[in-house]
Amino acid sequence: MKPNNEASLASAGSIARPPAARMPVASQPAAHPLIGLALGVVAVSTASLFVRFAQQAGADSLAIAALRLCIASLVIAPAAWQRCRDELRQLSRRDLAIGLSSGAFLGLHFATWITSLQYTSVASSVVLVTLSPMFVALGSALFLRERLPGSVIFAMGIATVGGIVIAVGDQALVGTPDLSRGNSALGNVLALAGAVSIAPHFIIGRRLRARLSLLAYISVVYGAAAILLLIAVAVLRVPLLGFEPQAYLWVTLLALLPQLVGHTSFNWALAYLPATYATIPVLGEPIGSTVLAVVVLREPLTLGRALGALLVLLGIGLMAAVRARRSHLSESRSS
Predict the structure, then answer these.
(1) N or C: the chain end with fewer CB closer than 10 Å?
(2) Could you tell me if 7 and 22 are in contact, meaning their C-beta atoms sit under 8 angstroms apart?
(3) CB neighbourhood size of 295 (10 A)
(4) Is 38 in contact with 280 (CB distance < 8 Å)?
(5) In the chain, where does DSSP find H-type helix?
(6) What percent of the chain has pLDDT over 70?
C-alpha cells in the first residue's frame, strides 16, 4: 500500500501537492508510460493478498510490517549509497529528525493497516485506507494553513459517507461466516488509523523530499520506519523468527513487488504523463485488491461494501481531479 513517493503525494487532492513540479522529459521512454502505471497498479494490488497469506502462515502483523520495510531498505541501500552518497552525507540533524518523524508515521501506517487485515475484509480495508488523501488535505489545512476549496470539502463529504456505509454494512455481517476471522469494527478502525497515520508522513516528508532525490528520500524514510518498527517488535516481544517458510516468502514478495516495483513504476510513469493520470494509482489499488480478493480469497463483495467503496473512490477521485485542474491552470498561467 501506500506509499511515500510523488505518486502518492500527487494523489492527495488539491491541497497536498508534490514538493516540486516535475519538469518535462525530453527523451521518449522505451515503453508507453501507461504500461508502467498498469504494472504499478497490479503490483500494489497484491499487497493485501501477500499480507493475508503471511498471516495465514503464522506471521504476526507487526512482524510483517517490520520485515517488509527491513527487506525494502536493505534492497535499496546499496544503490542509494552509490548514487546518493553526497546527498545523504550532507543531511543536517534537522533533516534527519524530519526523516525519522516521517518514517515513524510510515511505520505506524503499515502496522495498523496490515493488522486490520486480520479482522476485516480486503475490500473494506483497502478502501478505508484509501481515505488517506482526505486526511492529508485536512492536515495541510490545519497545520500548513492551506485553503480547502469548496469542491474538495464536497468530495470529502462523499468519501466520508462511503466509509460510513462500509462500516455499517460490515457491522451487520458480524457473526456470519464472511467475518468469522474477527471483529470487523476493529479491523475497519485500524484501516482508518492507517489512513490517518500516513497523512503526517506525507505532510512532514514534503519538506525533506523537496531537497532530496527520490532514492535518497526513500532510503532515509524506509530505513527510519524499519528501525522504529524493529524497536517496537523488541519492546512488545513480537517474534521475527520461527514462522513457516511460506511466511517469509510472502513477506519478501510484499517488499519487492508492491513496495519497490509498484511505487517505482508509478514514479517512472508519472514523469511522462499529465497530472490527471495521478488519480490512477490511488483509485486503482483498491479496485485491483478487491478483484484479487474476490477471485483468489473468495471473499464476497456485498452490496454495502460495493456501494461504500464506490462512494469513497468517487470522493477521492473528485479530490484528485480538482488537484489536476488547479495544477493545469497554474501551469497555464505561468507559461
Answers:
(1) C
(2) no
(3) 10
(4) no
(5) 6-10, 33-45, 47-56, 61-83, 85-89, 93-116, 122-129, 132-143, 150-171, 184-209, 214-235, 245-254, 263-270, 279-296, 303-334
(6) 79
pLDDT of 48 higher than 70: yes
Amino acid 191 reads: A
Distance CA 185, CA 198 (A): 20
Q: Nine-digit cell at 52?
A: 493475508
What cell numbers appear for 227 in the block?
A: 528501525
Weakest-pLDDT range from 104-113, 214-223, 241-250: 214-223
Task: Record the cell numbers describing residue 191, joined without a space.
Answer: 484501516
The whole model's pTM is what? Answer: 0.81
Q: Residue 260 corresponds to which cell in the numbers above?
A: 519497490
What is the Cα Rg of the chain in Å?
19
The residue among 111, 166, 76 whose CA lies nearest residue 1 is 111
Is the alpha carbon torsion for 273, 275, 279, 282 positive or negative? positive
CA dist list (Å): 23 to 50, 216, 265, 274, 275: 35, 19, 18, 11, 12
User: What is the Cα–Cα distance from 129 to 152, expressed in whole angstroms?
Assistant: 18
Residues for the chain: how many in total?
335
Question: What count of other Cβ atoms lies within 10 Å of the Cβ of residue 207?
Answer: 13
Instruction: Break the chain into its structural domains and give their ranges.
Output: 31-131+179-298
Residues 58, 247: contact at Cβ < 8 Å? yes
CB 33 within 8 A of CB 296: no
